[in-house]
Amino acid sequence: MKRLLLSVLFSSACLLSPVTGITEGLSPSQLPNEIPTGPQGKFHVQGIAVDQLRGFIYFSFTNELIKTDLKGHLIGSVTGLVGHLGDLTYDPLTDRVFGSLEYKDDRIGTSIRKKLDVAESGVNAFYVAIFDGAKIMRPHIDASATDVVKAVYLKEVAEDYQASVKVGAETVPHRYACSGIDGITLGPGIGSSDGGPFLYIAYGIYGDVSRDDNDHQVILQYDIRDWASYARPLSQDALHTVGPEKPASKYFLYTGNTSYGIQNLEYDRASGNFFAAVYPGKKLNFPHHSLFVIDGRKAPHSTMIQSDGREIEVQALSLLDAGEKDEKSGTRGWNFKYGATGLTPLGDGYFYLARKEKIADQSSSTAVKYRWIGEGETAFEEVAK
Q: Is the pTM of this model over 0.85?
C-alpha cells in the first residue's frame, strides 16, 4: 500500500497533462542525438514515442512494439500482432502508449499476413491499441495473451473504409478514399486552449489519381475520458467491436493528393501546432509536399468538399501560413526526407525523426534529433553531433 501511495504521489508531483507536458524529466538538450534500435525483423519502422520522464523510447515496427532505453538497449517488446501497427503517441500521465492498429483485406493487409505466413481473415477492423508502458519490461510479450495491450474499436473508420461511393460515373470502394488509419496524437482542442486532452487519429488515404474525392486528409477527434469502458484485450482470432459510436469531431484538411494519407501526426506543445508527415502523392496538379503543419490556433471552419458524387459541408482545419506555397492549389508545406516513419516532439522546437534503415536483411531504425526551422524551404536541421 505504501509503495502504491508513493507511486501515486510521485506521478502527481512530476506530471501535468500530456498536452502541457511534464514538469520534470529530460530536457531536449539532455537527450542523446541518436538512438539506434539494431535489427528488428521483416517490417520497417512506422512511428516513435518518447518517455522523457522515465528515459525510454518506443518504436513501432508494424507487427511489434519495442521499448528501449535512450542508448538503444532493448527493455521489452510486444509481439505477435498480425495487423498493421502504425504511428504512436505517449501519455506521460498514465504511462500509456497509443498506437493506430488495423486489420484489413487490402494490399497492405494481405502483404503483412503473407510475410507472417498467417491465413487471410476476411475481417476489416480498426483500433486504437493502448499499451501499458510499465508492464513492457521483457522481450516478446504476446499481444494476444496478456493485459499489456488493450484495444478500442473505431466504428467510424470501419464504416468509411467499407462504404461504396460515386466518383464520376463509377461506384468505387472507400468513402473519402479511406484506407484505414495511421497518424495519431494527443492534443488540446484545435483553435482553443480549453478541453482535452483529445486523441486525434488520421485516416490513411488511397492516392488513386483517378479520384476527385481524395485530396483532403481526414482527422478524427475523440474525447478519451470514458475509454476505460471500451478497452478490451486484443483477441486476434475474434476481433471485438467495442468502441465509441462516433468521434467528438471529424475534420478535413486540404493538402492535395498524398500516398496513404498522414503517416505521422504529432501535436507540438512548443508551437501549439500539429505536424503531419506523409508520403507524397502523384497527381500532377499538386506540389507533393511530404510535411504539412496544421495551425493549432485557428478554429475549424465550415467548407464544402466533394464526396459520393455531391458536395457536402464539413469542418475544415487550416495549414500554417509558412513553408513553400503552391499558388495553383493554395497548399503550403515542406519537402523533407524523414518524418513519415517516425516523428515526435521533444519540446523547445526539437524533435526526434526516425530514419528507416537496414542491417543485413533486417529492418532497423535510428531516432535522430532535429531542430525545427520552418522557414522558407527548410523544415528541420539536424542537431550537430
A: yes
